[in-house]
Amino acid sequence: MTEGFRPSHPKVSIDDDPGIRAQIEALTGELSQQQLAKWALIIAKKALYYVDDQQRYDRQLRLAIDANELWQVNLVSVYQVRQALARVSALNSNSTSSIGAAAIDCIRWAVASADADENALRASDQAVKLINLTKPNDAAAITAERQWQYDQLAGLAQNIQQGLRHML
């Protein structure tokens, strides 16, 4: 369990499936910051599809994701991830749509999960906000997104447990 991690209510205003979010919260408390960062990047890579066309292939997005992945295996420092994160934040102000801005916010929070583990859950919430924007008033789409997030997290947790058992 991550020391001091306390999941909280969404920081963004979203229509949500509170039951699945509560399950996600419960599971996040059992994983390390690196594991949560891995999960957040899975979510962020899905959000890349919604980034504005002129930004989709921006090198800064890929570098920020790479910085987080390298941080997960102790090849870069949190400071270097923060530097990459600052460049992603600048992209947000250049978004031409609210959907593109929400997608970049999702990616930004996922990358920021290297700095603080609760940012992984913020990336998750931002992905739900993205669904709210792309499919307004579609409770089934929101539930499907949350279930997909939970399945990704549970699969990651299960793989970690299997790996630990294999090591013993």
Descriptive tags:
mainly alpha; 71% helix; Imm5-like; Imm-5-like domain-containing protein; 168 residues; 8 helices; disordered N terminus; single chain; flat
In the predicted model, the low-confidence regions spanning at least 5 consecutive residues are 1-7
Q: Can you count the helices? A: 8
Oligomeric form:
single chain
Task: Count the domains.
Answer: 1
- Helix-residue proportion: over 70%
Structural class category = mainly alpha
Order of helices and strands: HHHHHHHH
Distance between the termini: 19 Å
How would a textbook summarize the main sheet?
none
Strand content: under 5%
Mean of all residue-level pLDDT scores: 88
Shape annotation: flat
Q: Count of DSSP E strands? A: 0
Using the CA coordinates, give the radius of gyration: 15 Å
Description:
By secondary structure, the protein is mainly α. The chain has one domain (32-167). The protein contains 8 helices and no strands. α7 (118-134) runs antiparallel to α8 (139-167). The chain is flat, with a radius of gyration of 15 Å. Residues 1-7 have low confidence and may be disordered.
Quickly describe the structure:
71% of the residues lie in helices and 0% in strands.
Topology:
Elements: H1 18-28, H2 33-47, H3 53-56, H4 59-72, H5 78-92, H6 98-112, H7 118-134, H8 139-167
